[in-house]
Design goal:
There is one protein chain. The protein is of the alpha/beta class and 240 residues long. Helices cover 45% and strands 21% of the residues. The protein is built from ten helices and seven strands. Strands 3-2-1-4-5-7-6 form a seven-stranded mixed sheet, with helices on both faces. Helix 7 links the parallel strand 4 and strand 5. The longest helix is centred in the last third of the chain and has 20 residues. The protein is globular, with a radius of gyration of 17 Å. The chain starts with 9 loop residues before the first helix and ends with a strand.
Length: 240
C-alpha cells in the first residue's frame, strides 16, 4: 500500500507550480512529459462542443496558465469561466490570457478542489487536466468525484486528462517503466527520465482508468466515455 505521508504536501505542490508559470503557459513546451497533451486537449474540447454546443459556464480545475479554457474559448465565446488552482501566479497568468479573448465573467478561486466553496448544479462543463493525480486515498477520490458531480448542471459533463496506472503489475512495468521511460529518455536523456520518475513518485498518486470510470458511475454519472489512452496517459469524460 502506498504511503501517502511520504508524498508531497499541498503546499509543496503549490510552491513548485508558483515557480513554473512561463513553462506551463505554452502547451508545447510545458507538457513535454505528457504524451499526446495537445491531442487530448483537442479531443476534450471537441467532445464538450459536441455534447454541449450551447454551453455558457465552465469550471477549469487545476487550470494552470489557462490552456484548456483558452482552447475551449477558441470554439465558443463568450463563456463565464471559473478558474481554480493552488497557485496565484498561475491564476493571474490565466486571467490575463483569458480576458484578452473573452468578454464573459472570469472568477478566480485559489484553493484545493477538496476545500473550494463552489456553487452546485451550476456548471455546463468541468475540465480537470493533469491535476487529479494529486489526490491520495480512496476517500479523496470518491469525495472529489462526488463533488464534481454535484457542481454540474443536469446534463453537464466532466472531462479529465491525466496520468494513469495499470492494474496488472507486469503491464505497469511495460507501459510505464519501460515504454514511458524510453519516451522520456529519447526526449531528454536518462537523467531527465530518472528525474521525472522521481517527482512522479514523490508528488503523484495516479489511479487506473478502470478505477476512475467505475467511480464516476458509482457517484451518479449516467454515461462515461473513454476518448483516448496512450501508455500511461488517458483522456475520458462523464455525463451527468
Amino acid at each position: 500500500m502506498e504511503n501517502y505521508l511520504e508524498k508531497s504536501t499541498v503546499q509543496e505542490i503549490k510552491a513548485r507550480f508558483d515557480k513554473d508559470v512561463d513553462r506551463f503557459s505554452n502547451l508545447e513546451t510545458g507538457q513535454q512529459t505528457t504524451i499526446d497533451a495537445t491531442f487530448s486537449m483537442e479531443l476534450i474540447v471537441d467532445s464538450i462542443m459536441a455534447h454541449s454546443p450551447g454551453l455558457k459556464t465552465v469550471l477549469d480545475v487545476g487550470c494552470g496558465a489557462g490552456n484548456y479554457t483558452l482552447k475551449l474559448l477558441s470554439k465558443k465565446a463568450p463563456l463565464d469561466c471559473t478558474l481554480l488552482d493552488l497557485s496565484q501566479p498561475m491564476l493571474s497568468r490565466a486571467k490575463d490570457r483569458i480576458a484578452a479573448v473573452n468578454s464573459g465573467t472570469i472568477t478566480l478561486v485559489q484553493e484545493d478542489i477538496r476545500k473550494a466553496d463552489l456553487p452546485e448544479n451550476h456548471y455546463c462543463t468541468i475540465m480537470a487536466s493533469a491535476v487529479l493525480h494529486h489526490l491520495r486515498g480512496d476517500n479523496d477520490w470518491e469525495a472529489v468525484f462526488a463533488k464534481l458531480y454535484r457542481l454540474l448542471k443536469p446534463g453537464g459533463s466532466l472531462w479529465i486528462a491525466d496520468l494513469v496506472v495499470q492494474e496488472t503489475p507486469a503491464l505497469q512495468r511495460l507501459l510505464y517503466q519501460e515504454r514511458y521511460g524510453r519516451y522520456l529518455a529519447d526526449l531528454k536523456g536518462t537523467a531527465y527520465r530518472d528525474n521525472v520518475f522521481a517527482y512522479i513518485a514523490k508528488e503523484d498518486s495516479p489511479r487506473s482508468v478502470n478505477f476512475q470510470l467505475n467511480l464516476l458511475q458509482d457517484v451518479g454519472f449516467r454515461n462515461v466515455e473513454l476518448l483516448h489512452k496512450h501508455l500511461c496517459f488517458a483522456a475520458f469524460g462523464a455525463i451527468k
